[in-house]
Specification:
InterPro entries: HAD-like_hydrolase_domain, HAD-like_sf, HAD-SF_hydro_IA, HAD-SF_hydro_IA_REG-2-like, HAD-SF_hydro_IA_REG-2-like_cap, HAD_sf. By secondary structure, the protein is α/β, with parallel strands linked by helices. The chain is 46% helix and 13% strand. The chain contains 11 helices and 8 strands. Helix 7 links the parallel strand 4 and strand 5. The radius of gyration is 19 Å and the shape is elongated.
Length: 245
């Protein structure tokens, strides 16, 4: 057996958020369908609502990236558009004609600004604590709005991070390499002494590698490694970082 590949030089580890540190507490379609069901809309299928959410999110994002920063929007206004369009596509309504749905919309936005909307992966606290105790700088690189901070606090893990880079604040989004360069500059670490961990090859792995960082994709469908050689691209859980760093 080959011994595990080490990353013993690493001084900075940055993380993506969604599907890396945490995941939605339930399918998005279920969360977005429930308000419609509560307000009496019939025959609501969560898989349809989930597909319409993805459609609405893509449409609003294409028109207003970085949560409408360039247009002077707030993130709340941005999400209001996404929710209104999702429900419009799903049940052919104008949300402004349904006052109760306006209140449901506001509750939905608030839900995803706390841990109520998410489930943290079990390995996260132990790995963050291990890395911090080794003196390694920790950061977040995320295409997120301000709620990234409140979610991390609500999950009890914000204290581990030296910085949280959010696309709404810096004006660039992954896969733009500039957001990775901003992360390196935030703690003055050279690219080859930094590791980025995420779940998307396009948004995480390739742009991190393009600026000279090490990168790993977490794929929890893969078995976690033992003493075999670690992949230079994939890890089966964040716990694999303990074996490598």
């Amino acid at each position: 057996m080959n011994r595990a590949k080490t990353l013993s030089n690493i001084r900075l580890v940055t993380f993506d958020l969604f599907e890396t540190l945490y995941t939605p507490a339930e399918p998005i379609g279920a969360t977005y369908a429930r308000p419609l069901q509560r307000q009496g809309f019939k025959n609501i299928r969560q898989e349809v609502v989930g597909a319409e959410f993805a459609r609405a999110f893509k449409e609003i994002h294409s028109k207003s990236p970085c949560y409408g920063r360039a247009q002077g929007m707030t993130s709340t206004q941005w999400w209001e558009q996404v929710i209104a369009l999702t429900w419009s596509y799903a049940v052919k309504i104008n949300i402004n004609e349904h006052p109760n749905l306006l209140a449901e919309r506001d509750q939905l936005i608030a839900r995803f600004a706390t841990s109520q909307g998410y489930t943290m992966f079990d390995d996260v606290p132990r790995v963050l604590q291990y890395l911090q105790r080794k003196g390694i700088k920790l950061g977040v690189i995320s295409n997120m709005d301000e709620s990234a901070e409140s979610v991390l606090r609500s999950l009890g893990i914000r204290r581990y991070f030296d910085f949280v880079l959010k696309s709404i604040n810096v004006g660039v989004e992954k896969p733009d390499p500039r957001i990775f360069e901003l992360a390196l500059g935030a703690v003055n670490v050279r690219p080859y002494d930094a590791l980025h961990v995420g779940d998307s090859e396009r948004l995480d792995y390739l742009p991190a590698r393009s600026v000279g960082m090490e990168a790993r994709l977490v794929d929890r469908s893969r078995p976690s490694v033992g003493d075999i050689e670690l992949s230079e691209k994939y890890i089966g859980s964040l716990s694999d970082l303990i074996k490598a760093i």
